[in-house]
């Protein structure tokens, strides 16, 4: 294996998350928040000890790209004499053509920039630090890892919408997201859940963003997110699946414009919209407010219903895997979902569930249930290293 460090980057509109990997080990991780407003950096070493982060007050970065350029010298100081091998980036959209990570070139960036209209809230922010690093350190390899790539194995019947046929060729189709998380889970199944690795599995990525993925033998065959990361399950502030006629109605009746619709569906809906309390699951679980309880009920109902739908796509179910913030930590929610999936043969082991598994179903349960922590950054670090090794051959 090539010795050296890979920097994994995940850029949003106002934040830049970074982790330094040597092999599978995290040397350092942290984030810049409040970019464009009042940026601040927090960082910890691999053991979780807080580090003195660089002070960006002198020249506060206005974009994630500027934040990366401001951070790079500090990150280099923390390499401990090891070479910096590459930057590995999380990029939300790889479009219909990219079914795996790619080494960044100017042509690739043009290709990815053309996908920005498909993910206007994420893609431009993901790409701007790549551009900046390319200009500042042209010799440093960069790898783009896509949230959509893992879902390119989904059969065409499950990728199209029943719109005029030519729409799919224009890119209006189901892409699916959280692919790096699902790929990580698929990669560890042979070790953690050997009985499921070749079987029919629904992975429930339940975090601030939430989706389900149907795995058949470790490959994605169906998923709840679609053209955008708005579809499928209700999320922290996103509505998930709704009748598109609701949007038409609101535009007609309330005069909502594009920005108004976007704000409603992306930021004022989901658990926040239903509860009126919070988008954060911990707040909802701690709340006595009947609407917070109702929001949780809706969430559980929709997840269980989604699992049933994906079990239908799989032609049966051998197991469910829970992951991400809610899936990994909220035992009561896992219990409620498993209860609602008992008709699929899921029998929960309450003691194992309270102890966070990894197996949380009873011995002899027709469909197994597991809790497996996800690790999208590790997936990016591995892909980046593997691609470098491939290109060096
Ligand atoms: P993101 O999509 O931002 O990566 P995460 O996977 O970190 O999100 O998940 C965040 C969600 O997980 C939040 O709704 C948070 O409340 C929830 N969560 C985290 N820890 C717990 C916990 N112990 N119990 C219940 N929910 C939790």
SSE diagram, text form:
Layout: E1 5-11, E2 16-22, E3 25-33, E4 40-45, H1 64-77, E5 84-91, E6 102-103, H2 106-113, H3 123-136, E7 142-146, H4 156-159, H5 166-169, H6 179-192, E8 200-206, E9 210-216, E10 219-223, H7 244-254, H8 258-267, H9 270-275, H10 281-286, H11 290-314, E11 319-323, H12 324-329, H13 331-340, H14 350-354, E12 368-371, H15 376-392
Parallel strand pairs: 1-5, 5-7, 8-11, 11-12
Antiparallel strand pairs: 1-2, 2-3, 3-4, 6-7, 8-9, 9-10
Helix pairs in contact: 1-3, 6-15, 11-13
The protein binds adenosine-5'-diphosphate.
Residues 207-209, 236, 280-282, 285, 324-326, 329-330 line the site of adenosine-5'-diphosphate.
Report on the architecture of this protein.
With about 400 residues, the chain is of the alpha/beta class. The chain has 2 domains: about 5-150, ATPase, nucleotide binding domain (Nucleotidyltransferase, domain 5, 2-Layer Sandwich); about 195-370, Nucleotidyltransferase, domain 5, CATH 3.30.420.40. The protein has 15 helices and 12 strands. It has helices at about 65-75, 105-115, 125-135, 155-160, 165-170, 180-190, 245-255, 260-265, 270-275, 280-285, 290-315, 325-330, 330-340, 350-355, 375-390; strands at about 5-10, 15-20, 25-35, 40-45, 85-90, 100-105, 140-145, 200-205, 210-215, 220-225, 320-325, 370. A 7-stranded mixed beta sheet has the order 4-3-2-1-5-7-6, with helices on both faces. Strands 10-9-8-11-12 form a 5-stranded mixed beta sheet, sandwiched between helices. Helix 1 packs across helix 3 (about 125-135), helix 6 packs across helix 15 and helix 11 packs across helix 13 (about 330-340). The longest helix has 25 residues, at about 290-315. The mean pLDDT is about 95. Adenosine-5'-diphosphate binds near residues 282, 324 and 326.
């Amino acid at each position: 294996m090539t010795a050296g460090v890979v920097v994994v980057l995940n850029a949003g509109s106002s934040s830049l998350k970074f982790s330094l990997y040597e092999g599978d080990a995290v040397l350092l991780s942290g984030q810049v928040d409040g970019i464009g407003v009042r940026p601040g950096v927090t960082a910890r070493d691999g053991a979780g000890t807080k580090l003195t982060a660089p002070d960006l007050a002198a020249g506060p970065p206005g974009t994630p790209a500027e934040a990366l350029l401001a951070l790079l010298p500090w990150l280099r100081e923390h390499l401990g004499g090891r070479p910096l091998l590459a930057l590995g980036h999380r990029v939300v959209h790889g479009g219909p053509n990219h079914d795996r990570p790619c080494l960044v070139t100017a042509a690739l960036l043009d290709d990815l920039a053309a996908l920005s209209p498909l993910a206007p809230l994420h893609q431009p922010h993901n790409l701007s630090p790549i551009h900046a690093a390319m200009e500042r350190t042209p010799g440093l390899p960069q790898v783009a890892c896509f949230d959509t790539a893992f879902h390119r194995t989904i059969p065409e019947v499950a990728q199209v919408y029943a719109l005029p046929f030519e729409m799919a060729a224009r890119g209006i189709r189901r892409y699916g997201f959280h692919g790096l998380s699902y790929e990580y889970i698929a990669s560890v199944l042979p070790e953690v859940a050997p009985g499921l690795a070749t079987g029919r599995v629904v992975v429930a990525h339940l975090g601030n963003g939430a989706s389900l993925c149907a795995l058949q033998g470790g490959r994605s065959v169906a998923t709840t997110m679609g053209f955008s990361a708005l579809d499928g399950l209700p999320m922290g502030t996103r509505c998930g699946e709704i009748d598109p006629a609701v949007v038409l109605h609101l535009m007609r009746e309330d005069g909502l414009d594009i920005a108004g619709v976007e704000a409603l569906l992306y930021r004022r809906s989901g658990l926040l919209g239903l509860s009126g309390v919070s988008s954060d699951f911990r707040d909802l679980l701690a709340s006595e407010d009947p609407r917070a309880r109702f929001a949780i009920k809706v969430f559980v109902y929709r997840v269980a219903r989604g699992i049933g739908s994906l079990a239908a796509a799989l032609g049966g179910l051998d197991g469910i895997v829970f992951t991400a913030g809610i899936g990994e930590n909220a035992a009561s929610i896992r219990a409620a979902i498993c209860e609602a999936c008992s008709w699929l043969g899921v029998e929960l082991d309450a003691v194992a569930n309270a102890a966070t598994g990894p197996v949380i179903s009873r011995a002899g349960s027709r469909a197994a249930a597991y809790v497996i922590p996800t690790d999208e950054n590790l997936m990016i670090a591995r892909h980046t290293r593997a691609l470098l090794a491939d290109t060096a051959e």
